[in-house]
Each structure stands twice: as C-alpha cells, then as structure tokens.
Amino acid sequence: IDTVIDSRISASTSTDPFGPDNVTRILLVGLDTRAGASVSHCDAIQLLTIDKETETITITAVPRGTYSPLPPGTGTTSSDYYVSNSCALGGVAYGVEQIERILGTEADYVAFIGFSELVGALRALRLPASDTVQWLRHRQGYQIGEPQRAHNHSTFIKQMLVRFTPETIRGADTALHYVLYQFVDTDMPF
C-alpha cells in the first residue's frame, strides 16, 4: 500500500485537487486485512466523483465479484478471476489498475482502509461498530448477493457524508475529520 501511495504522490503535479475540469475522483478501497495480515482482498470498491461546478457527488460501486484478469500463473479456478482477488494475487497496485480499467477512468486519489481501521473509525464516530460491520459485510441473504452489498456500501458512504459533513466548518469538525483521516492510507492531502 505504501508503495502505491508513494508512487501516486510523486506522480501528482497539481496543487488543486479539482484540476481544470473542477472534478476530482477518489477511489475508496476497503481491504479485508486484519491486524498482522500481509495479503489483502479488495473487499469494498467505491469511486467518489466530486464535481465542484455542479456541487454534486456521484458514488459508483464495483462489486467485488466483477471479472478481472489476473497476472499469469496466479489464477487456478474460475472463481479466482474476481477483482477482489486482483489485489490479493497481483498486489494492491495491480488491483487498483484493474479497478480503474473496470471503471473506465483513473482516480485522482486512492484511499485504503483495512478491516481493523474501519472498526476503529466507526467507534470514533460513536457508531455501533459490530452491527455496522455485519451489515456492510452481509451478502448471502440477498437474491442478487454482491451487487446488493456494493449498493449498501454506497448507501453507507452517502449517509456518512450527509451526517458528518457540516455546512460550516468549525474547529471541532476539523479535529474529527483529521482523526478519521488518520484511519486511512491515502495519497490525498488532508
């Protein structure tokens, strides 16, 4: 993850996060890594497109079961060829490349959050961590499974933006946002 973030930071030349088109794209990747684990699947994949001109945010979900090619010699069964496995079997940089290929656009920024960090962020927000994580991970009981789960992730992000983005910035808001910022690995400046 650090290598991916460092390479993206060094490639960035603009100081304006929105650039000339007034749009910025942030790829949010939830990894299933627990503390101490070294291999991660891309478990939750969401692209936030923020348009400063129209003052809108579009959230695009990529279900973890979306087909993705894997590096030669890594896939052994048909169920290996999922975008979630592209991070685990090909590495995080390869996974991000495949996600951007699926989306048809390159993200301006990437943000990764692991399982343990998500639980910590939920607790910092005083949200019911166990229940929220169970709802975010659930897919077996839905008829359409993973697409519904990906939709739920988008709904969760929307609700977090609505609930925790103040209309006017106060010092306490900045402090809370900085605490949450510390839970993610990202190439995006605070």
Using only CA atoms, what is the Rg? Answer: 17 Å
Order of helix and strand elements from N to C terminus: HEEEHHEHHHHE
Strand content: 15-25%
What value does the average pLDDT take? 87
Shape: globular
Task: Work out the number of β strands.
Answer: 5
Number of helices: 7
Main beta sheet: strand number and arrangement? 5 strands, mixed
Order of strands, widest sheet: 3-2-1-4-5
The percent of residues in helical segments reads 40-55%
Distance separating the two termini: 18 Å
Low-pLDDT runs of 5+ residues are none
Name the features.
single chain, 5 strands, 42% helix, alpha+beta, 190 residues
Describe the fold and architecture.
With about 190 residues, the protein is α+β, with helices and mostly antiparallel strands. Helices cover about 40% and strands about 15% of the residues. It has seven helices and five strands. The protein has helices spanning about 1-10, 85-90, 90-105, 115-125, 130-135, 145-165, 170-180; strands at about 25-30, 40-50, 55-60, 110-115, 185. The chain has a five-stranded mixed sheet with strand order 3-2-1-4-5, sandwiched between helices. A hairpin with a 4-residue loop joins strand 2 (about 40-50) and strand 3 (about 55-60). The mean pLDDT is about 85.
